[in-house]
Amino acid sequence: MVKLTIDGRELEVPAGTLVIRAAEQLGIYIPRFCDHPLLDPLGACRQCLVEIEGQRKQLTACTTTVSEGMVVSTQAASQAARDAQESVLEFLLVNHPLDCPMCDKGGECPLQDQTLKYGPGESRYVDAKRRFTKPIPISPLINLDRERCVLCARCTRFSSQIAGDPLIEFFERGASEQVAVFEEEPFSSAFSGNVTQICPVGALTTSTFRFRARPFDMTTTRSTCTRCASGCAIGVQARRGELVRILAAVDLDVNDEWLCDKGRFGHAYVATPERVTQPLVRKGGELVETSWSEALEVVASRVRAAREAGARIGVLGGEQLLDEDAYALSRFARTVLGTNDVDARVRVGADDEEHLFQALPKTITATNQDIDAARAVLVVGLDAHEESPIVFLRLRKAGRRLGTRVVEVGPMRTALEKSSGEWLATPAGAESAALIALACAIGGEGLDAELRAIVDDPEAISAVERAGIDTAEAARLAEVLEEARGSVVVLAGERLAGSPGALPLAWNLARALGGKFGWVPRRGGARGAVDAGLHPALLPGGRSVRWAPHREEVEQVWGSPVPEAVGRDARAILENAAETAVLFLFGADPVRDFPGITSTSAQFVVACDMFLTASVSQADVVLPAAAGTERAGTATNWEGRRRAVRAATSPAGASQADIEVLAALAAELGHDFPGTLEDLGEEMRALAAEPVEAKLLEVSSVAAPHGDAERSFGLLSYPMLIDSGTLTAGADALTSTGEAPYVVLSYADASSRGIADGTTVRVASAAGEVRAPARISKNLAPGVVFVPARQGDVNAGVLFDAGESVGFVHVEAVE
After folding, report:
1. Distance of CA 540 to CAs 19, 43, 517, 688, 779, Å?
2. Do 517 and 365 contact (CB within 8 A), yes or no?
3. Which of 9, 49, 409, 445 keeps 20 to 30 A from 205, CA to CA?
4. Is 383 helix (H, G, I), strand (E, B) or coil?
5. Helix H segments across 443-486?
6. Stretch 620-645: mean pLDDT
7. Distance in angstroms (rounded) separating the CA atoms of residues 800 and 764
8. Ramachandran category for residue 601: left, alpha or beta (phi over 0 → left; psi -120 to 50 → alpha)
């Protein structure tokens, strides 16, 4: 600890603390432009000059560290510091246009504020100011007004240090120095919007917000982004009831101060004309608008008829639901519909192994802070950059600050390569074999006896050999993990469930290394859906449908019996939809998301959604759902944190929150049902997961998928961050930053087949085919082809058989 004095006040701070941070602890604000607590110090703008006793000239508080006995005088106590800061502001304003009334930053501009508080009050400069062409669109989302730039380097430091996309830089020198992007290389970063928020002037602004509102015209609601499972803190801004802008809010435990572009710019769907805002009922083969009372009556009559006939009723919920929606849907299915045929996992890879660990609350123990402090992180079945961007930034930060080693296991190396990540390549769907190879290399005293028994199984060793895992590389990476014992985090994506045995193996490996385990699903409501019991074998809090004491606990809270038989999962419901008398879809689109499904096929389909998706358009009754920014509730992120979601605008048209829709349906069917957040919250707290210490998770099987000679490529596919999904509707500037359809091949495979970069290739399976230009990559395992799930008009789902998580395809060049 170091003692110093600032403006006559003594304090003690850790050695290495910057003077500007020490002053903040005393509540003393030193003006600044280039300084940002999450960026490396630079001292570019010189605005934070202070006087330090014993120094011949003023020093920048943002780059000067404290020392024992240091005496600092800020602008509040030193005329010299005041004069220096005034001179810097006068210099910055020499060429800065005084166009505050038309600048998008007006009203929330640090330069504007500090000029009024610390500036000279008038200008002595009478010559013509510098002029540039304005604005320059450096991407579809970001505009650059160069004459406003004060060369603080916040944007360039964020791009290189935080995002790892050094696409924006300083060009020229001296008086000609300016921020720009490289020729024919736009600012294509998944985090580009952050530079506009941290820019202290109006040099970088967003095309979607330009000239739309003023800060004093808008209301700001603190809420949570649910576009992925990170649960970022956001500020939702609305003007006259219209959602205008979303900004990142500061939350150092979750998203620091950053937001991905999808979370920032992907809100246009809320106001698109295609949105369903009135109840619809099918009459004469067409969906026509009707009243809520008629729609509810039609649904209730079909449900009554199905129950009287003893017919099956199925319920599918999307993994974008808020916690209360998921809980209410789970409760509605069991108490009102009398069925356990309920699931939210309408996606490839959801299987019994997945719910083995989901049922035990203590299995998922990792947090963002564990990533920050880890010495090694094992990432398997997860493309963090595309599926959980804030986790990607956490991994980059850990690597940059602590030298954390990141080990990826899978068929394709991701953007973590730019963070010096290591890679153990596997065939498609053979992650379990790679994890066995890692466990074997750790071996001996490093493993639990139970895990040693698993890896010593001849069948497991055979799977490693059949998969062709590089055991020498596995041994080297096992040393990396072993050296970090006690400070290891294992992060598993939801796709890992598609490799038999991989999910429990990953958890067991984390336990054996004394580390933490994190399950990072793609969608924002996946963790909350499991906790709420939106699952055929699980009740709220991870309770088992099979075990009578668990059912009794739930029945006491609900005041209603719970069906005893384990229900059908999403795959079984969809593959046998014709046996289902009534199918409820709440935020689910199985036709789009579930391979091999072209129709919902149930006898009667009720959908609660915002859009007429491929599935909803086939429904018999459509009930309009409120958007996430139009309702309140909570969202559980991948760590298990419950994050508050607050309504920023009123629901569009006659749309309602899911919990209100379910309460109205229950009332129509003659059941009492909690219809408020308070009532639901009270029940959810009573059924919260009890801490259960998990030991070893059973590994049911380990397999190495393989194709035949004709269909020799293993197929890897998952959605990119920016794709043609429903919730990017209307966000044209955002979707234009996404990529056109493509497929990826390894150099070895492309060379052996005479395929060059850009060649159109045909990827075909027994189920279907897609055609797209080829990209040749060193970051893809041989024998694997990667096809993004939904890019433009290409949907890789047509290549999979129904419910298939790993497919095998034929690849050939086409004219």
Report:
1. 51, 53, 22, 7, 41
2. yes
3. 49
4. coil
5. 449-455, 458-467, 471-483
6. 96
7. 10
8. left
Identify the structural domains of the chain with CATH numbers, from first to last: 2-92 (3.10.20.740), 132-271 (3.30.70.20), 280-344+527-675 (3.40.50.740), 354-524 (3.40.228.10), 713-813 (2.40.40.20)
The C-alpha atoms of residue 192 and residue 139 are separated, in whole angstroms, by 9
In angstroms and rounded to an integer, the radius of gyration of the C-alpha atoms of the chain is 29
- Length of the chain equals 815
Q: Can you tell me the distance from the alpha carbon of 130 to that of 561, in angstroms, rounded to the nearest whole number? A: 76
Q: What angle do CA 486, 393, 158 make, to 5 degrees?
A: 135
Q: How many helices (H) and strands (E) does the chain have?
A: 25, 37
Query: How many other C-beta atoms can be found within 10 angstroms of the C-beta atom of residue 519?
Result: 29
**Measured between alpha carbons, how far is 175 from 98 in angstroms, rounded to an integer?**
19
Q: Could you tell me the two tokens for 608? A: 């609660």
- Measured CA to CA, the distance from residue 321 to residue 464 in angstroms comes to 39
Cβ neighbours, 10 Å, residue 628: 29
Q: How far apart are CA 668 and CA 623, in angstroms?
A: 15
Hey, what are 268's tokens? Answer: 């246009």
Bridge partners (DSSP) of residue 419 are none
Determine contact, residues 26/132, Cβ cutoff 8 Å. no
Q: Extract the tokens encoding 532.
A: 């709420």
Q: In this structure, what token pair is assigned to residue 265?
A: 């710019």
Which is it for the CA torsion 220, 222, 223, 227, positive or negative? Answer: positive
User: In 3D, which of 285, 277, 276, 222 has the Cα closest to residue 254?
Assistant: 222
Residue 406 has, within 13 A of its CA and on its CB side, a CA count of 31
Question: Would the pTM count as exceeding 0.90?
Answer: yes
Token pair for 415 = 């953007």
What average pLDDT is seen over the chain?
91
Position 271, amino acid: A
Q: Which two tokens stand for residue 235?
A: 């500020």
Cis peptide before 279 (omega within 30 of 0): no
Other C-beta atoms lying within 10 Å of the C-beta of residue 65: 15
**Residue 176 contacts by C-beta under 8 Å, 6 or more apart in sequence?**
none
203-259 pLDDT, tens digit per residue, is 999 999 999 999 999 999 999 999 999 999 999 999 999 999 999 999 999 999 999
Structure confidence at residue 198 as a pLDDT band (50, 70, 90): very high
